[in-house]
C-alpha cells in the first residue's frame, strides 16, 4: 500500500492538527452526505470524462506554461509562468466551480449558493450555473458589492442573484457566514460551492483536488521544456489558498521542490492593516475549520486588510496552516506597495497585467535571491482586468 | 452527573428557558437581566457569550452579539461579572457560545471557571459530537458540566441515539431547518417532528428551541416535550422595551 501523503487530509479531514469539521449540527447531514460521496463520485470514469471535456473545450485547458524570458534575464533564474489567467473568466477559480457543479448535479441538487469577496469566485460560480441551467445565489459583502461593481454586473448578466451580506464588516468573511446560514435553512436541495480550500472537511480536500490540475499539467509541461518534472521552487499567493493548493498539490511529497507561499502584508505586519495570517494569526476555528486565523486574545475574529480583495481573508486553508507549521512551505508577506510595483513590473517586462492577488507572488524577488540555474514556477492565478481601476488610482495613470 | 439542570428537569412542570446575550443592552446589564428573569418565574437561563461570527444565529442575536462585543464583553469579563452569582441566582445556568472562545481561553480553564462560578451546562453548537467525545468529554465531566447537543429534523435516529447515550440532561431540539429567530410559527411538519422524537423514548428530556416567540408557539413546542427555549424573541423585546419590561415579556409566554 502506498504511504499516506503527510501533507494531504486524513480520513477525518485533518492536516496535522488543522482542519476537521467544526460545524453546527444543522449542517451535519449535508456535510456528511458530501463526505460520504465526493471521492467515489469524482473518481468515476464518466465524471472524469465530463470534467476533462469541459476543462478542455470550455475552460481552455491545458493552460500554457510560459517561459518568461525577460523576467528570467532580469532576475538571473529560469522563470516559468503557469497561465491560469488565460482560463475562461480570467482566473483559476473556474477549475473548482466546474468540478463542483458536476458534483452537485450528481448529488441531485437543484440550487447553488456561493460566497464571493472580489467577485471572481462569484463570477466563476455564476458561469458554471449558467452552463448547467441551475439556480444560482451569490452572497457578497455589501462593502464589496460597492467596491467590485463590474463583477456584480457580470454575475447578474450570467443569471445569478447577488445577495448583499449586511452583517459584521460586510466583506468576504460575512458573505461566507451568510452562505452557511442559507445552507442551514435549505438543507435538502442546495449545494454550497465554497471558493477556496477553506471551510469544514471535505471542502479543503475537495477544492484542492479540483485545483490539482494546475500542478498535474505543470509537471508534464516542465518535463517537455526542462527535461524534468520538478522545478526548484513553486511560488503562489495565498489568501484562502486555492490557487496555491493547486500549484503545490503534486509537489507536496517531492521534498526537493521548495514551496513558497506569499501572503498579503497590507500596509505592513506591524500595522493594524494586514492580512498576513501566518505572521499574525493563531490556531482557532473559522468557518468550520481549525486553522491559523487572525483573532484577538478572546477569540473574536479580527478584520483583515489588503489592497487586493481576494487576499482579504482572516484565515488560511488548513492544508496551508499545516505546511507552515511543519516547515514544508516558506511563508513570506508582501506589502501593498511591493505588490503593486511587482504588478507593474510584470506588465512592462512580459506584457501581462496580473491580478493584484497574483502580483504579490512576483514581489518575492524583493525578499529572496535565487541561483542562476534555479527553475521557478509561478502560478499566474488571475488576470488584472478586474483591478484596472485600482492600478489606475494607485499609479495615477 | 447530577446538578441543578437535572433537578429542574425532574420537576413536573414544563420548563421555560430564556437565552440572553451577556453584556447587552449595556455591558453591566448581565446580572440585572438574570435576576429579573429569575424573579419573573423563568426556570433556566442560557447566558450567551457573544462571538464575532455566530454561524448558527440569525440577525437578532448577531446584532446583540455585535453590540455586546462593542460594549466590551469577553469570556474574561463575563466570568468577572458572574462572581458570586450563586448568592442570588438559584435556577440552572448554561453558557452558550462558539467553540473558538473556549479554545482561546483554554478548554480546561474555561470549564474549571464555569464550575467555580456555579454553571451547570454548556452549549457550543460548533463543537461536534465526535470531537467532544474524543477530546473533551472527560474535562466537561470532571467539572460537572452537562454538554448539551443539538438535533434538527434532518438528524438521523442513529445519531440521536448516540447523543442520548453521551448526554445526561436534555437534548436541544432545533425546531426547524433555520438559524435562530425564524418567525414562521409551527405547522404540521414541526408537530410531527416533535411527536416523532418524543416517541423515541430517549433517556434525556427534550427541550425545543428556535422559533418560539409567544404563548402559542411555547405551548405547541412543549406539547410533546419537557420545555422550550426562547432567544431572539426575548432579545427583540429587550432591545425595544428595556430591562425593566422583562416581566411583561415573560407574562406573554405563560
From TrEMBL, chain A:
UniProt xrefs under InterPro entries: Trp_synth_b_CS (IPR006653), Trp_synth_beta (IPR006654), Trp_synth_beta/beta-like (IPR023026), TrpB-like_PALP (IPR001926), TrpB-like_PALP_sf (IPR036052)
Superkingdom, natural source: Bacteria
Cofactor dependence: pyridoxal 5'-phosphate
Sections of the chain in a coiled coil: none
Presence of the UniProt keyword Amino-acid biosynthesis in the record: yes
Keywords, ordered alphabetically: Amino-acid biosynthesis, Aromatic amino acid biosynthesis, Lyase, Pyridoxal phosphate, Tryptophan biosynthesis
EC numbers on record: 4.2.1.20
Residue stretches making up the Tryptophan synthase beta chain-like PALP domain: 60-382
Amino-acid biosynthesis listed as a keyword: yes
Sites of N6-(pyridoxal phosphate)lysine modification: 93
Reactions this protein catalyses: (1S,2R)-1-C-(indol-3-yl)glycerol 3-phosphate + L-serine = D-glyceraldehyde 3-phosphate + L-tryptophan + H2O
Pathway: Amino-acid biosynthesis; L-tryptophan biosynthesis; L-tryptophan from chorismate: step 5/5
Subunit organization: Tetramer of two alpha and two beta chains.
HAMAP family: Trp_synth_beta
Task of the protein: The beta subunit is responsible for the synthesis of L-tryptophan from indole and L-serine.
Family: Belongs to the TrpB family.
Protein name per UniProt: Tryptophan synthase beta chain
Automatic annotation (TrEMBL), chain B:
Pathway: Amino-acid biosynthesis; L-tryptophan biosynthesis; L-tryptophan from chorismate: step 5/5
EC number: 4.2.1.20
Keyword line: Amino-acid biosynthesis, Aromatic amino acid biosynthesis, Lyase, Tryptophan biosynthesis
Active site: 46 (proton acceptor), 57 (proton acceptor)
Coiled-coil parts of chain: none
Enzyme class: lyase
Domain of life of the organism encoding this protein: Bacteria
Annotated catalysed reactions: (1S,2R)-1-C-(indol-3-yl)glycerol 3-phosphate + L-serine = D-glyceraldehyde 3-phosphate + L-tryptophan + H2O
SUPFAM superfamilies: Ribulose-phoshate binding barrel (SSF51366)
A Pfam family: Trp_syntA
Signal peptide positions (record): none
Annotated InterPro entries: Aldolase_TIM, RibuloseP-bd_barrel, Trp_synthase_alpha_AS, Trp_synthase_suA
PANTHER family: TRYPTOPHAN SYNTHASE ALPHA CHAIN, CHLOROPLASTIC, TRYPTOPHAN SYNTHASE, ALPHA CHAIN
Function: The alpha subunit is responsible for the aldol cleavage of indoleglycerol phosphate to indole and glyceraldehyde 3-phosphate.
HAMAP family documented for this protein: Trp_synth_alpha
Similarity comment text for this entry: Belongs to the TrpA family.
Subunit structure: Tetramer of two alpha and two beta chains.
Protein's recorded name: Tryptophan synthase alpha chain
Amino acid at each position: 500500500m502506498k504511504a499516506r501523503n503527510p501533507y494531504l487530509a486524513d480520513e477525518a479531514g485533518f492536516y496535522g492538527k488543522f482542519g476537521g469539521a467544526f460545524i453546527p449540527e444543522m449542517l451535519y447531514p449535508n456535510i456528511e452526505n458530501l463526505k460520504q460521496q465526493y471521492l467515489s463520485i469524482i473518481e468515476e470514469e464518466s465524471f472524469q470524462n465530463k470534467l476533462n471535456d469541459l476543462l478542455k473545450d470550455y475552460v481552455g485547458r491545458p493552460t500554457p506554461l510560459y517561459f518568461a524570458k525577460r523576467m528570467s534575464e532580469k532576475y538571473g533564474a529560469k522563470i516559468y509562468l503557469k497561465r491560469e489567467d488565460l482560463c475562461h473568466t480570467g482566473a483559476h477559480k473556474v477549475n473548482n466551480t466546474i468540478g463542483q457543479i458536476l458534483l452537485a448535479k450528481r448529488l441531485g441538487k437543484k440550487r447553488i449558493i456561493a460566497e464571493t469577496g472580489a467577485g471572481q469566485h462569484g463570477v466563476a460560480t455564476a458561469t458554471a450555473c449558467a452552463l448547467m441551467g441551475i439556480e444560482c445565489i451569490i452572497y457578497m459583502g455589501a462593502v464589496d458589492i460597492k467596491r467590485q461593481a463590474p463583477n456584480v454586473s457580470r454575475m447578474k448578466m450570467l443569471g445569478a442573484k447577488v445577495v448583499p451580506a449586511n452583517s459584521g464588516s460586510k466583506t468576504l468573511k460575512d458573505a461566507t457566514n451568510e452562505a452557511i446560514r442559507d445552507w442551514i435553512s435549505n438543507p435538502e436541495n442546495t449545494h454550497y460551492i465554497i471558493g477556496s480550500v477553506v471551510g469544514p472537511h471535505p471542502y479543503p480536500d475537495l477544492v484542492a483536488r479540483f485545483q490539482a490540475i494546475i500542478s498535474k499539467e505543470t509537471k508534464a509541461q516542465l518535463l517537455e521544456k526542462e527535461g524534468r518534472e520538478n522545478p526548484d521552487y513553486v511560488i503562489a499567493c495565498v489568501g484562502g489558498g486555492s490557487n496555491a493548493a493547486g500549484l503545490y498539490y503534486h509537489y507536496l511529497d517531492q521534498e526537493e521542490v521548495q514551496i513558497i507561499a506569499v501572503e498579503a502584508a497590507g500596509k505592513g505586519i506591524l500595522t493594524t492593516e494586514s492580512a498576513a495570517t501566518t505572521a499574525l494569526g493563531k490556531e482557532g476555528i473559522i468557518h468550520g475549520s481549525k486553522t491559523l486565523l487572525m483573532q484577538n486574545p478572546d477569540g473574536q475574529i479580527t478584520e483583515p486588510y489588503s489592497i487586493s480583495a481576494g487576499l482579504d481573508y482572516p484565515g488560511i486553508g488548513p492544508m496551508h496552516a499545516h505546511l507552515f507549521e511543519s516547515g514544508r512551505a516558506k511563508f513570506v508577506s508582501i506589502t501593498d506597495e511591493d505588490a503593486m510595483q511587482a504588478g507593474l513590473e510584470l506588465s512592462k517586462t512580459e506584457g501581462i497585467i496580473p491580478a493584484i492577488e497574483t502580483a504579490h507572488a512576483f514581489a518575492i524577488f524583493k525578499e529572496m535571491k535565487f541561483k542562476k540555474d534555479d527553475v521557478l514556477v509561478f502560478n499566474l492565478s488571475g488576470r488584472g482586468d478586474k483591478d484596472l481601476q485600482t492600478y489606475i488610482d494607485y499609479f495615477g495613470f | 452527573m447530577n446538578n441543578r439542570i437535572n433537578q429542574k428537569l425532574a420537576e413536573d412542570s414544563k420548563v421555560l428557558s430564556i437565552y440572553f446575550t451577556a453584556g447587552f443592552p449595556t455591558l453591566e446589564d448581565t446580572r440585572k437581566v438574570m435576576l429579573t428573569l429569575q424573579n419573573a418565574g423563568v426556570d433556566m437561563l442560557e447566558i450567551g457569550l457573544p462571538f464575532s461570527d455566530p454561524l448558527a444565529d440569525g440577525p437578532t442575536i448577531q446584532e446583540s452579539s455585535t453590540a455586546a462585543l462593542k460594549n466590551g464583553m469577553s469570556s474574561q469579563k463575563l466570568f468577572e461579572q458572574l462572581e458570586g452569582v450563586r448568592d442570588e441566582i438559584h435556577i440552572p445556568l448554561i453558557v452558550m457560545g462558539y467553540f473558538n472562545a473556549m479554545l482561546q481561553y483554554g478548554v480546561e480553564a474555561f470549564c474549571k471557571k464555569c464550575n467555580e462560578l456555579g454553571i451547570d451546562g454548556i452549549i457550543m453548537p460548533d463543537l461536534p459530537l465526535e470531537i467532544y467525545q474524543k477530546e473533551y468529554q472527560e474535562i466537561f465531566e470532571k467539572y460537572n458540566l452537562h454538554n448539551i447537543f443539538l438535533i434538527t429534523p434532518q438528524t438521523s435516529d442513529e445519531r440521536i441515539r448516540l447523543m442520548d447515550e453521551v448526554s445526561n440532561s436534555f437534548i436541544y431540539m432545533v425546531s426547524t431547518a433555520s438559524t435562530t429567530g425564524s418567525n414562521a410559527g409551527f405547522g404540521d411538519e414541526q408537530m410531527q417532528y416533535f411527536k416523532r422524537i418524543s416517541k423515541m423514548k430517549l433517556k434525556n428530556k427534550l427541550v425545543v428551541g428556535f422559533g418560539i416567540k409567544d404563548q402559542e408557539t411555547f405551548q405547541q413546542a412543549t406539547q410533546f416535550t419537557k420545555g422550550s427555549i426562547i432567544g431572539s424573541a426575548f432579545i427583540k423585546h429587550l432591545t425595544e422595551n428595556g430591562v425593566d419590561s422583562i416581566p411583561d415579556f415573560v407574562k406573554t409566554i405563560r
